[in-house]
Design brief:
It is built from seven helices and five strands, in the order αβαβαβαββααα. It has helices at 2-11, 32-47, 67-72, 95-105, 154-169, 176-187, 192-202; strands spanning 19-21, 54-56, 81-84, 109-116, 143-149.
């Protein structure tokens, strides 16, 4: 009930989707599925205008293991969106990593793409085309959504976020190099000279 009361505070200011995060926790998972289903049924469904619950599991990439734990999540309401970073904390976006987790959780996956976050490499700014460091499949299936984790530098992150948005809108037609070139005019639409200068610096 305490959690739902907190959700209500956010609901009252306009929030219409909620998430619960168990990543890197040591939670007792005995009643986890019941807990998730209760939130979905007694809060999300009861509100009527709230999108399905998002949850981040305790084991959120293949390298961590937790197969039995992940398989148990298949018993949760199938509308609940389950996050996954891939084979590792930072991964490629490819069909094999999607197939692995969807087979366990019994639903399309909500990809948590740890890009362009640079916590592990804080001397690196990820301002190249988004396929420079990590590849993306051009026709992925069974993906419910993609959440990008940006750097602490909001302006520098816009280059990658522009790429992620374009890729997820139409993966089949996505051109990483063209997207990168175009993004600077979108980031600084009223100053072509400055946009070109930023393109030169980030290139």
């Amino acid at each position: 009930q305490a959690l739902m009361d907190k959700f209500d505070q956010l609901y009252d200011i306009g929030v219409r989707q909620f998430a619960v995060f168990f990543d890197d926790s040591s939670t007792d998972n005995t009643h986890l599925v019941d807990f998730l289903n209760t939130i979905q049924h007694d809060y999300v469904d009861a509100k009527g205008d709230v999108k399905p619950l998002i949850m981040c599991p305790q084991y959120y990439n293949k390298n961590q293991g937790g197969v039995d734990y992940l398989r148990s999540l298949a018993q949760s309401d199938e509308r609940i969106q389950i996050m996954w970073t891939g084979d590792n904390v930072v991964s490629e976006v490819n069909q094999s990593m999607v197939d692995y987790i969807t087979d366990l959780i019994g639903r399309p996956v909500y990809v948590w793409w740890n890009y362009p976050v640079n916590d592990a490499e804080d001397s690196v700014f990820f301002t190249n085309p988004i396929n420079f460091d990590y590849s993306q499949d051009s026709n992925p299936t069974n993906i419910k959504g993609v959440l990008s984790n940006p750097m602490n530098y909001s302006e520098a992150s816009k280059v990658a976020l522009f790429g992620v948005a374009d890729y997820t809108w139409n993966p089949q037609a996505f051109d990483a190099e063209q997207n990168w070139y175009d993004c600077f005019d979108a980031i600084i639409p009223d100053d072509p000279e400055m946009a070109d200068a930023l393109r030169t610096v980030y290139g």
